[in-house]
């Protein structure tokens, strides 16, 4: 049990540090994301790697991977924020009208 907890802590600490950095340096992320919601999801996602594999991912690579995931999460709800008129304009632009 203790070993499992230590393993989770390694993922949690490293991912939290990167998410903190990315959110603190991006106002869009600050507006759209909740760190307390996203970090556990990221930990679960990256736990598909063994601890040894996770440790070999360089910080720059891991930061890039996490950033891409944050972008997806941040923009996924953007269309929900549009007014009906804005949504119509979006639909027309997508359809090429």
What does this structure look like?
- With 97 residues, this protein is mainly α.
- The chain has one domain.
- It has six helices and no strands.
- It has helices at 2-24, 27-32, 35-46, 51-56, 59-76, 84-95.
- It starts with a helix and ends with a helix.
Characteristics:
97 residues; mainly alpha
Instruction: Provide the β-strand percentage band.
Output: under 5%
Task: Write the element-wise H/E pattern from the N-terminal end onward.
Answer: HHHHHH
- Give the proportion of residues in helices: over 70%
Mean pLDDT: 87
The tally of beta strands, per DSSP, is 0
Structural class: mainly alpha
Rough outline:
elongated
Distance between the termini: 59 Å
- Our count of domains comes out at 1
Major pleated sheet: none
SS field, number of helical segments: 6
Pick out the low-confidence regions: none
Rg measurement, Å: 17 Å
Brief summary:
This protein is mostly helical and 97 residues long.
How is the topology of this model organized?
Layout: H1 2-24, H2 27-32, H3 35-46, H4 51-56, H5 59-76, H6 84-95
